[in-house]
Fold this sequence. Notes:
It contains ten helices and nine strands. The chain is an alpha/beta fold. Adenosine monophosphate binds next to α2 and β5.
Amino acid sequence: MRQLSTVDSVRAFLAPARRDGRRIGLVPTMGALHDGHLALVDDARRRADLVVLSLFVNPLQFAAGEDLDRYPRDLARDVALAAARGVDLLFAPTVEEMYGAGRELRIVGGATANLWEGAIRPGHFDGVLTVVAKLFNIIQPQLASFGQKDIQQVTLVRQLIEQLNIPVELSMVPTVREADGLALSSRNVYLSASERVTARALSAALRAAAQGWSRGERDAAVLHAFAEAVLAGAPGIVTDYIAVVDGARMLPADAVVAGSIMAVAARVGSTRLIDNIIFGQKGL
Length: 284
Ligand code: AMP
C-alpha cells in the first residue's frame, strides 16, 4: 500500500492506472477505522480495480464547539488496518494541503441539507459536500463507496453527483453493527460502559419500527410512535429527532413504502449518535 499526503503525488501515482483504464474506487473517511469503514473497502475492492482510502478529519464539516479537537486519531493503526484490507493508496493530506489555497468557496446543499442533521448542525453538509467534491476532483474515481450509516450524507452526495454531473458511481454499503445492534462509529469510543448500554436504544427503536412494518403497519405516525416509545423508555438518552422520510430527498412522509427511511439521532451523555433503517430492507 502506498501512503501519500499531497495532491500532486496522488495524481502522479494514479496516472498510469487511469491510462491503463483501471477502475478507481474511493472510500472517503475521517480515520479511526473500524469494521464499518473496512466494509466500504471490501465493497470498493469488489467493484473497482484500485482502491483509494482517504483519511482526513475535515474541519469544514465541524461547527464551533463540536468534537473536532478531540476526534479520535490514530494514523499508525489506520495504516495497518487499511494495508491489511487491501487498500492500494491511502491519501492522508494535512489541512494545509486541502485548504491552503483557500476555503471561502463552498458547495451549498439544497433543502435536504437543512433537514435533520443539517438542522442541528448548520453548515455541516456544506462542509461535507465541499470536501467530497474536492476528493472527487483529486482522485477522479469511477466509483465511491459510502455507508448507509450516514444516510443523509449519501442522499446529498447522490444529489451532488447528479446535479453537478460528476461521472462517479455511488455505492451505498449497509450499516455494520455490534452484536447488540449498535451501529459502529468512530464516536462510540466516547461512550462510558453504562452509556454504551444505553446506546442500544437507537437500534432497538429502529427495530421496533421495522417490526411494525413487518406486521403491515404503513402509517408513519404509528411507526414513529413505536420508535419513540423505545427511546423514551431508555433513561439518560435525549432524542434529537426521529424522522420518517422518503428515500429520495428525506422529506417527511405520511405513508411509509418500501424504500422509505426512518432516521434517528440521540444524545447519550455528551455523545451524539445517529442510525437509520430503510423499510423493506433485510437486516437489523
Ligand atoms: P467517517 O469516517 O465517520 O466520516 O465515515 C466514513 C465512511 O464510513 C462514511 O461513508 C460512513 O457512512 C461510513 N461508515 C461509518 N460507520 C459505518 C458503519 N457502521 N457501517 C457502514 N459504514 C459506515
